[in-house]
Protein 1
Amino acid sequence: MSYLVMECHPGYAVVLDSDGRFFKVANRNYQVGQTVTSVIKMLEPDTPQESRPQSFAKSRMQIFAKSWMRTAAAAAACLFIMVMGARQFLIVPYGSVRMQINPDIQMSLNRLDYVIALEGLNTDGETLIDGYSFRWKSVEQVSDDLADRAIEYGYLTDGGNIHLTVNSSHEKWKAAAESRILLELEVHLGKTITVTAGDARMDEQTPDDDRESDTGNPSHPNKDSAPVSGNGNTSQNVIVIPVGPDAADEAVNDMDEDD
């Protein structure tokens, strides 16, 4: 029987017999493509053996599968890191800007200085932001838009004031954001409206505060309040009407004696 040498290795060779079977044989200085008639097989003749092409293809598929799994795992890890990083920059609040006119509004900002939440802190603030879309807008654009809406709604006129309060645990970002928004509003509004920054103003009350002050102020008496004298003390002139047959005469006599 003749054998065709298909592969040569330092310790063995792979040959193909005339029946199409592959055998691993001792390498006796064979050359690829050489035809020999006698070989020393390294396997017992009765030992089952896969054909070389099938074994080779299976090995290549296993290597490819392992490589693909490693690549997929690395890609998933990179994607997770990218998503978490994007979340930190786009979704997580990095600071806030409170804008006090008479409407009181607070903006939450992400790391890229885009507004991710807008809240009215009093009734006028809720009215001012009603119907306004702040999505994917920078804090400078939202500040300008809210100032324009305040002018349009009559909350802000010439000589008025806008007070800004920037809050963040990141001091450098806080200082930079405050300076940038101040400059933006001053350029946008001109000199007719002043823009200040610092701690939140305490001179503005919410509607609930106004109602509480009205009910507790003596200048707003209700039907149960006692009369107040000119010096601020509750009047003590109380007339006691006695009860009895001569009640009317006694009451008249007492009033004459007081006079």
Protein 2
Amino acid sequence: WKTIDDETKQAKALIRIVEQGGALIGRIEKVLTDKADAVCDLCPDDRKGKPVQGMTILTGLKKDGDEWTGGEILDPNNGKLYRAKAKLADGVMGAQIAAHLVNAQVDVLLYDLPAKDGDKSAIARRAIEGLKKLNPAPLGHADLAAFVVPANYEDDLAKLGECDLVI
């Protein structure tokens, strides 16, 4: 997950989110600003005075149906803790990875769940269209979205056998 500054719209940090012991945790893997050596002076707990890079900031999110709830997230800039809740969105992460691959001239099939009605690849197709609207833009140019081919797990599973890399 890449965090974006609300004011400057610039990338601030890369956060790795993993499932551990039945809960999601998130850790700042890399600070992308000139403050890579920052410490959390305002943290209210044992993280006070510790380096921000490498710090766990998301804890305790547990699966509850199609959501993750009951967690807490720390803003290391102000030391405040907030209740956290997450719901995975269709195609967001995969579409951004696909964008970076087409920037490098790699052919991409973007898979998602089959849509319940109409075009079964509609969810992947919407994710591809959404790439053109993101800021910062993951695509080198909006026209590159045409090189990401939408697919779904119901109709297009056999195409995975033709792929050199599956992410």
